[in-house]
């Protein structure tokens, strides 16, 4: 998907960054996240939007790649929510805002989710 953009696309990062988990833990964390999402779906713990947004948030938190983690996470969430029978998210496209304002709102929603409040990210995903 990103190979024409970055040569390293699809390769987990190997260096520490100021965000994300220890690079050595990435493969296990991603597998665990996929297992958690399967449990959420099978047990109907959350509705489809919340499953996909929680999946997105955790994937971005893991920060598996050197770059493109938000884009990758949004695409993955869109595929997941579509597979669960809902429309893909709009991720702020319906808001009348400049790109920088959208990025700030998205980042703020991620920080709120880091603090345990997923509501703002759910709202942003459908805005």
Q: How would you describe this structure to a colleague?
A:
This protein is mainly α and 127 residues long. The chain has one domain: Fido-like domain (Fic-like fold), CATH 1.10.3290. It has 5 helices and no strands. Helix 1 (26-42) packs antiparallel against helix 2. The two termini are 25 Å apart.
What are the main properties of this structure?
globular; 5 helices; Fic-like fold; mainly alpha; 127 residues
Summarize the structure.
With 127 residues, this protein is mainly alpha-helical.
Strand content: under 5%
| Helical segment count | 5
Radius of gyration: 15 Å
Low-confidence stretches: none
The major pleated sheet works out as: none
Spell out the blueprint of helices and strands.
Layout: H1 26-42, H2 48-62, H3 69-83, H4 99-114, H5 119-125
Helix pairs in contact: 1-2, 2-3, 4-5
């Amino acid at each position: 998907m990103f190979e024409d953009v970055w040569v390293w696309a699809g390769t987990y990062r190997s260096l520490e960054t100021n965000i994300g988990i220890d690079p050595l833990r990435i493969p296990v964390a991603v597998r665990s996240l996929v297992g958690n999402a399967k449990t959420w779906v099978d047990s109907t713990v959350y509705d489809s939007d919340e499953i996909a947004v929680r999946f997105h948030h955790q994937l971005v938190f893991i920060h598996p790649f050197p770059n493109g983690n938000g884009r990758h996470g949004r695409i993955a969430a869109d595929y997941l929510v579509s597979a669960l029978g809902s429309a893909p998210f709009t991720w702020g496209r319906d808001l009348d805002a400049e790109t920088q304002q959208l990025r700030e709102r998205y980042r703020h929603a991620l920080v709120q989710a880091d603090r345990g409040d997923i509501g703002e990210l759910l709202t942003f995903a459908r805005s």
